[in-house]
Amino acid sequence: MFNYIMNKNRTLKRLLDILLSLAVIIFVLSWLLPLLVIIIKMESAGPGIFKQERSGRNNKPFWCYKFRSMRVNNSNAQAIKGDFRTTRMGAFMRRTSIDELPQFFNVLFGEMSIVGPRPHMLKHTEEYSLTVDQYMDRHFLRPGITGWAQVNGYRGEIRDHEQIIRRTEYDIWYIENWTITGDIRIIINTIVSVVKGDENAY
């Protein structure tokens, strides 16, 4: 019975992911993606879409997509407040989280979920796995565009070790207490946060 319920829940979560990602891709990205790519390329040389290898479910690497918000560079350092690499359009996209919208393609492809632990760069996964208890357990689920940690104030730059510990605690709590209604609440809270503005969005 337990396995049946778990499989049913996974199916419901995946169905929600497919329906919402298709809606965003068809009704928003179908016109916004080409428009933003043109604007991004006009402001600075380079591709309109940025891709970076991140750690996925079961720690399997995948290419995570974003609108490029920085000038092309060779640095893999995380973005910080006032980052000189960020373009003017990039700063706007990051404040409004528009830069994350291409990840709905990752969701449709089954590499991500709309809600789940945020995916980290491979080097950060390797680093945090050595110093944070249960860190690798957060890879039990598909990574998310948003998550329980993010709606509780832990998004963006990781400034100290305590922050990654707290984020991991929120991620593990989410995995252990997941429900469809919980996902819907997180999505709604994320939208509200984007509309109101998040001080950690930069």
From TrEMBL:
InterPro entries: Bact_transf (IPR003362). The chain crosses the membrane at residues 15-40. Residues 13-196 form the Bacterial sugar transferase domain. Keywords: Membrane, Transferase, Transmembrane, Transmembrane helix. One of its GO terms (molecular function) is phosphotransferase activity, for other substituted phosphate groups. Pfam families: Bac_transf (PF02397). It comes from the Bacteria. Belongs to the bacterial sugar transferase family. This is Sugar transferase. It comes from Mucilaginibacter glaciei.
